[in-house]
């Protein structure tokens, strides 16, 4: 992430990765304030065993694109909502990459989907880890379906008037 102020957003993604039992790194790498650190981080990522990089940034949000320019690993950008433009500035910065520098981009503040996408990428590997993650993803999807079906049953049995929606 580009700043410690991004941690509250990026925490949800880290929790998903922890739940799936995969190794991951959480650190601060600023494209503007620590460019040498960013270069070292990106160029050494594969050698450190990383298979994908989730990069959260707000404002100008140059970090995901600059990291993607320095590695061939998949980079997933998380636009972080800042104090101006509700994160749309970050979204546009991350999603509008030039040809040849791909960055997969998720919704504003949605590090959960970034983590799930990273897991889906790793699950395509023909390895023990890939198979383990595939099995865990299948269970995750099944659990989500069960959660929704329980809500369907509650709504249909009690009627919409009695159904309390959590906010």
Automatic annotation (TrEMBL):
Protein name: phosphoribosylaminoimidazole carboxylase
InterPro entries xrefs: PurE_ClassI (IPR033747), PurE_dom (IPR000031), PurE_prokaryotes (IPR024694)
Isomerase among keywords: yes
Top EC class, one word: lyase
Pfam families: AIRC
Entry superkingdom: Eukaryota
Source species: Tuber melanosporum (strain Mel28) (Perigord black truffle)
GO biological process: 'de novo' IMP biosynthetic process
SUPFAM superfamilies linked to this entry: N5-CAIR mutase (phosphoribosylaminoimidazole carboxylase, PurE)
Keyword Ligase: no
Residue span, PurE domain: 1-148
The EC number(s) this enzyme carries: 4.1.1.21
Record GO terms (molecular function): isomerase activity; phosphoribosylaminoimidazole carboxylase activity
């Amino acid at each position: 992430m580009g700043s410690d102020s991004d941690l509250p957003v990026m925490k949800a993604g880290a929790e998903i990765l922890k739940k799936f039992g995969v190794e991951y790194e959480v650190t601060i790498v600023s494209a503007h304030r620590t460019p040498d650190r960013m270069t070292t981080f990106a160029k050494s990522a594969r050698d450190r065993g990383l298979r994908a990089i989730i990069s959260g940034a707000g404002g100008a949000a140059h970090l995901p694109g600059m990291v993607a320019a320095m590695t061939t690993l998949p980079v997933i950008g998380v636009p972080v909502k800042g104090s101006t433009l509700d994160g749309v500035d970050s979204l546009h910065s991350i999603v509008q990459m030039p040809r040849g520098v791909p960055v997969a981009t998720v919704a504003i503040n949605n590090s959960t989907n970034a983590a799930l996408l990273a897991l889906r990428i790793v699950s395509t590997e023909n390895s023990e880890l890939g198979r383990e993650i595939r099995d865990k993803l299948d269970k995750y999807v099944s659990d989500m379906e069960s959660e929704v079906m329980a809500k369907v049953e509650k709504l249909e049995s009690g009627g919409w008037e009695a159904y309390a929606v959590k906010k």
